[in-house]
C-alpha cells in the first residue's frame, strides 16, 4: 500500500522548471531515498508533498488521499534548515513543539523524557537551545520530528551534523521505525547511507526523474560496465572492448567500453586460452551511479 503517491507534478519558479513531471510512490513500511544533486528539486518536491507549495500541475496523495490539517499531525518532518527556538530551554522547547502536534502535557513530558535519555541529551535538558552544539540541536530536532509517533517521517539530511556514534544511533532509530510499519522518506547526499538503509529510491536531476526503483535492481541495471576477473596467469595484452584495467586484490577490474557486453570479453578470454578462477560482473556503488547520471549524458529512465 502506498503512503505517498506523487503523480506527474510540476513546479516552476520564474523561468526555471524546478520540478518537471515527477512521479513516484512510497510504500508503507519502507525507507525511501529521495536523491539528487544540489538544486535538483528535492526540497521543492517535499514541500509539495507536505502542501507547503501547490504544484503547477499533477497530484499528490498522502496517507490515502489529499493532504488535510488532520494528516499534518500524522507526519513528522525534519527540514533541511534546522530551526528550534533558541532562547528557551531544550525541555521547554520540545514540550512546546509536542503540544503543537496535539500531545497532552503528561504524554508529551513522558515521551520527551524517554527520547532525551535515548539521545544522551537528558542532562542538557535545562540548557538553552542556543547553548547546545550543532549535533545536539540536530538530535533535539529529530526528537521533535518523532515525538508524536508519526506514520510518515520525512527527514532531510538526518546525519549531516552527527558524529559516527550518533549517526549509528539515528540509523538504528530509522530502522526501528520501519520495523514498526512507519514510512520514511530520506533525503541525503551520503550514498553509503542510502545503500545501507533504503529499500527503494528516486533520483532527481534538474527536476526530472532519472532513476526509480529498488536498490538491487538499479545496481544491476548499471552493472555491465565493469568485470572482475582472476586469471590463472596473465591477461592477454590486447583486450578489445576494454578501456581500462585496474589491479584488484586478487585479480583485475576491467572497465568496458560503452557497447561491450561482458559475454564478449569472456568469449575472447576463453578463445585466448586464459584459464579463469573468477569472472563476475562487478556491481557499481550508488556513488558511482549517481556521478554517472548527474555528470554524464543522463537521459531520464
Ligand atoms: N521559493 C523559491 N523561489 C525561487 N526559486 C526557488 C525557491 N525554492 C527553490 N528554488 C530553486 O529551485 C531549485 C531547486 O531547489 P531545491 O531546494 O528544491 O533543491 P534541492 O534538490 O533540495 O537542493 P539541495 O540538495 O541543495 O538542498 C533551485 O535552483 C532553487 O534555487
From TrEMBL:
The keyword ATP-binding applies. The keyword Transport applies. SMART domains: AAA. It holds the Pfam family ABC_tran. InterPro entries: AAA+_ATPase, ABC_transporter-like_ATP-bd, ABC_transporter-like_CS, ABC_transporter_ATP-binding, DrrA1/2-like_C, P-loop_NTPase. One of its GO terms (molecular function) is ATP binding. Coiled coil: none annotated. Residues 4-231 form the ABC transporter domain. Signal peptide: none annotated. Keywords: ATP-binding, Nucleotide-binding, Transport. Belongs to the ABC transporter superfamily. This is Sodium ABC transporter. It comes from Thermanaerothrix daxensis.
Amino acid at each position: 500500500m502506498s503512503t505517498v503517491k506523487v503523480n506527474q507534478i510540476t513546479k516552476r519558479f520564474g523561468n526555471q522548471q524546478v520540478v518537471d513531471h515527477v512521479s513516484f510512490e512510497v510504500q508503507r513500511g519502507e525507507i525511501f531515498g529521495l536523491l539528487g544533486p544540489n538544486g535538483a528539486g528535492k526540497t521543492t518536491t517535499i514541500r509539495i508533498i507536505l502542501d507547503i507549495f501547490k504544484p503547477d500541475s499533477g497530484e499528490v496523495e498522502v496517507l490515502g488521499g489529499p493532504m488535510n490539517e488532520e494528516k499534518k499531525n500524522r507526519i513528522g518532518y525534519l527540514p533541511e534548515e534546522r530551526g528550534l527556538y533558541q532562547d528557551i530551554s531544550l525541555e521547554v522547547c520540545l514540550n512546546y513543539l509536542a503540544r503543537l502536534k496535539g500531545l497532552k502535557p503528561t504524554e508529551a513530558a513522558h515521551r520527551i523524557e524517554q527520547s532525551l535519555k535515548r539521545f544522551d541529551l537528558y542532562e542538557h535538558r535545562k540548557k538553552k537551545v542556543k547553548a547546545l552544539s550543532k549535533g545536539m540541536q540536530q538530535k533535539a530536532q529529530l526528537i521533535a520530528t518523532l515525538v508524536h509517533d508519526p506514520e510518515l517521517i520525512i527527514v532531510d539530511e538526518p546525519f549531516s551534523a552527527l558524529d559516527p556514534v550518533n549517526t549509528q544511533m539515528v540509523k538504528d532509530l530509522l530502522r526501528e521505525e520501519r520495523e514498526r510499519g512507519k514510512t520514511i522518506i530520506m533525503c541525503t547526499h551520503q550514498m553509503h547511507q542510502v545503500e545501507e538503509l533504503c529499500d527503494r529510491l528516486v533520483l532527481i536531476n534538474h527536476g526530472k526523474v532519472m532513476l526509480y526503483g529498488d536498490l538491487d535492481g538499479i545496481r544491476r541495471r548499471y552493472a555491465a560496465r565493469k568485470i572482475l576477473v582472476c586469471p590463472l596467469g596473465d591477461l592477454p595484452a590486447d583486450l578489445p572492448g576494454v578501456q581500462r584495467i585496474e589491479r584488484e586484490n586478487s585479480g583485475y577490474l576491467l572497465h568496458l567500453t560503452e557497447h561491450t557486453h561482458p559475454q564478449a570479453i569472456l568469449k575472447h578470454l576463453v578463445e585466448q586460452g586464459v584459464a579463469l578462477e573468477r569472472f563476475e560482473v562487478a556491481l557499481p556503488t550508488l556513488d558511482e551511479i549517481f556521478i554517472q547520471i548527474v555528470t554524464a549524458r543522463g537521459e531520464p529512465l
